[in-house]
Amino acid sequence: MPSSNNYISTRGGEEPIGFCDAVMTGLAADGGLLLPEKIPDVRGKLNRWQGLPYPRLAAEVMACFIGKGDLPRATLDKLVQRSYKAFTHPDVAPVVPVGELHVMELFHGPTLAFKDIALQFLGHLFEHILEERRTHLNILGATSGDTGSAAIAGVRGKPSIEIFIMHPRGRVSPIQERQMTTVLDDNVHNIAIEGTFDDGQRILKELFGDLKLRETLHLGAVNSVNWARVLAQTVYYFHAAFRLRERTGCKQIQVAVPTGNFGDIFAGYIARRMGAPIRRLILATNANDILARFFATGRYQLGDVHNTLSPSMDIQVASNFERYLYYRLEEDPVRVATAMAEFKRTGELAVPGDDEAFTAGQCDDEQTLETIAHYHHEHNYLVDPHTAVGMNVAEAHLQPDCPTVCLATAHPAKFQDAIQRAVGKNVAHHPAISTLFDLNARCDTLPAERRAIVEFIKTTLRERGLL
Ligand SMILES: *Cc1c(COP(=O)(O)O)cnc(C)c1O
């Protein structure tokens, strides 16, 4: 069966491509992001999906976006089953009542953050596509913390993939560092660069910009604009609505999402457009409030990055925002390209009207600590600082006839310093965290220079017989 070419660029400068090509490419060639040509309406399927266990629901939701010639249904089922076996909770993403809120715990995967939900799947999907195409891929990434470990956990031990992850030496938390460097599989290569996260990003950009090098080294990326990551995340918005309907009989929910790169909440937006019973999405930011300000004013304005207690949300430009802009600008790629060019030139863009799908708010570090302390003392429930941002903003947006689900994006044991500050002692534990410091680690330290990184990659690939 031929593949159905149903992925287009937000900027309209490319012929449509199929699902597997969209996953392998990441970014569209015209600089835009890839999106499905049409979003399916699944309202007629909701009753049938209601009782499904998480992996079966995941396959149903994702199949709506994948041409049968791209990935046969039986293969998708198999990849999804494998992906969610790695989660330690039988429901994968349990939804628990906490005070007036409901919390969906997305942190039961191998690295204890929600990024595992997508990156476990992406790892298996990459492996399948590479085997079909009889080729291999060398993933290169730069991380400030959570993404690196989840990406490594997604591809460790896979024979068709090598992964190189740069982190700024001494500038990620000891737990985050250990989550990466204690993975000793032969295909995992951690690089501590003597520089900042921005140096890592810059090197990454330079290497990917060099098309010839990219080709000779078979380089690939796992960043948050990969469509498969968004797609895997739409699933749990349906899952949340179903669990809440069972518990409360409600017809609709609202969902609070701690937001950084706009990947997670954009998945919720797609789910809503498909017909998931979501009244609105509550976008929660920390002091980096560019997105909260956008939903209040219609203006998207570049600002300075502030370091906060919720570092995975410390972003300046949200990489998935352009996808939302495409819908907000009436699916007109010319308007998107114009707006993005304007943003590049002036650091600002404006959009008319508003969108009832969203409401937004922000929460600073002090409120984050208060929220952690409040839920610990009043409800005996411990949350990490990212989740706390979402819960704090959710409290200001409760609705009497519509329950609120807050996405818990990381396990509190990943952020023990913040817990210690909020509660007065460290009460956040997890066996996968406490044993990290007894394990052996492997990591190479290199100068933050493009040449040194390229040499390291080449030498490693030669040693491994891959170049
Ligand atoms: C990545 C991350 C976020 C932000 O998610 P986006 O998809 O970038 O908006 C929030 N919380 C945690 C713990 C994360 O790792």
In short:
The protein has 19 helices and 15 strands. The protein is an alpha/beta fold and 467 residues long. The longest helix has 22 residues, at 227-248.
Description:
By secondary structure, this protein is an alpha/beta fold. The chain is built from 19 helices and 15 strands. Strands 3-4-14-9-10-13 form a six-stranded mixed sheet, with helices on both faces. A five-stranded parallel sheet has the order 8-5-6-7-15, with helices on both faces. Helix 11 links the parallel strand 9 and strand 10. Helix 3 runs antiparallel to helix 4, helix 5 crosses helix 10 and helix 15 crosses helix 16. The longest helix is centred in the middle third of the chain and has 22 residues. It is globular and about 60 Å long. 49% of the residues are buried. The mean pLDDT is 95. The chain binds pyridoxal-5'-phosphate (PLP). The site of pyridoxal-5'-phosphate (PLP) has 16 residues, from helix 11.
Largest sheet, strands/sense/barrel: 6 strands, mixed
What Rg is obtained from the alpha carbons, in whole angstroms? Answer: 21 Å
Main structural class? alpha/beta
Mean pLDDT: 95
Arrangement of strands in the largest sheet: 3-4-14-9-10-13
Task: Supply the key terms.
467 residues, alpha/beta, six-stranded mixed sheet, five-stranded parallel sheet, globular, binds pyridoxal-5'-phosphate
SSE topology sketch:
Elements lengths: L6 E3 L9 H7 L8 E3 L9 H4 L4 H10 L9 H13 L9 E4 L2 E5 L9 H18 L4 E6 L3 H10 L5 E8 L5 H8 L6 E7 L2 H13 L1 H6 L2 E2 L6 H22 L4 E6 L4 H12 L3 E8 L4 H8 L1 E3 L19 H8 L4 H14 L1 E3 L7 E5 L2 H15 L5 H11 L8 E5 L7 H8 L7 H4 L9 E4 L2 H14 L4
Parallel strand pairs: 4-14, 5-6, 5-8, 6-7, 7-15, 9-10, 9-14, 10-13
Antiparallel strand pairs: 1-2, 3-4, 11-12
Helix pairs in contact: 3-4, 3-10, 4-5, 5-6, 5-10, 6-7, 10-11, 15-16, 15-17
The site of pyridoxal-5'-phosphate (PLP) has 16 residues, from α11.
